[in-house]
């Protein structure tokens, strides 16, 4: 059993000879934020809620002819998948059949206040040519999806340009173009489903690999709060809430990384108050119910958000930090 930050992987059949194997993904109640690692608390029911949303999303992708590694759900918090070979250090050469592509692909439909695009623009590290113009609705909504690539197996993920993405991913520019098209398709599928269940999608990420015939397939999972920024009105109902529970931690992590402090010497965050854990758990449960059942259960999610805001005690700060409003940036006027 291999423990990842919020999932466990059990290998049933190892991949071999360019052919996928099989494995079980178990969605745990653990969580991590800001590349810090696993946090002290668990969110009861988070794993089952994330699994239910992932399974529903895999069904939507299948209907849209987007191939995935999903095979079947085997427990309330576990799925059986095609298991691809992994190359964490680039030693296996170009990505081929039965292999993961060691990249994360980020898609953005909007640039809300919490988007890293704003921080990178202020720091001068953003390629403004990659930012589409704002759409008819104005900021923060983009006229078309913005697609970026990040590293996956470095200690801290970083955004990279297309040329470096091809090198790190072991793929060629034509493959990157296909991944961009597939990622846009993933975004549009999730955007439509969000609209159908009373949510709004701002951004998210996808990961891909090649099946045994070197056909690109969506791997890991998509359509859960862990890798998408969902909103209910102006309030995030996603991992942004978990980040909000740890004020100042992002800046701490950025400082530790800049100072090259080894991860095993990083300070441990304080545990959460029980009422915050309970309120967060109810948001996950209510969100999963809405995602899998539809808008008929939307009232439960509204109540869960209200309870979370009450438990936090600072609703204005929550919406100011994570709201959908955003100042225009260069290249997106």
From TrEMBL:
Coiled coil: none annotated. GO terms for biological process: 'de novo' IMP biosynthetic process. SUPFAM superfamilies: SAICAR synthase-like (SSF56104). It catalyses: 5-amino-1-(5-phospho-D-ribosyl)imidazole-4-carboxylate + L-aspartate + ATP = (2S)-2-[5-amino-1-(5-phospho-beta-D-ribosyl)imidazole-4-carboxamido]succinate + ADP + phosphate + 2 H(+). Keywords: ATP-binding, Ligase, Nucleotide-binding, Purine biosynthesis. Its EC number is 6.3.2.6. InterPro entries: SAICAR_synt/ADE2_N. GO terms for molecular function: ATP binding; phosphoribosylaminoimidazolesuccinocarboxamide synthase activity. GO terms for cellular component: cytoplasm. Pathway: Purine metabolism; IMP biosynthesis via de novo pathway; 5-amino-1-(5-phospho-D-ribosyl)imidazole-4-carboxamide from 5-amino-1-(5-phospho-D-ribosyl)imidazole-4-carboxylate: step 1/2. Pfam families: SAICAR_synt. Residues 22-233 form the SAICAR synthetase/ADE2 N-terminal domain. Belongs to the SAICAR synthetase family. This is phosphoribosylaminoimidazolesuccinocarboxamide synthase. It comes from Nocardia terpenica.
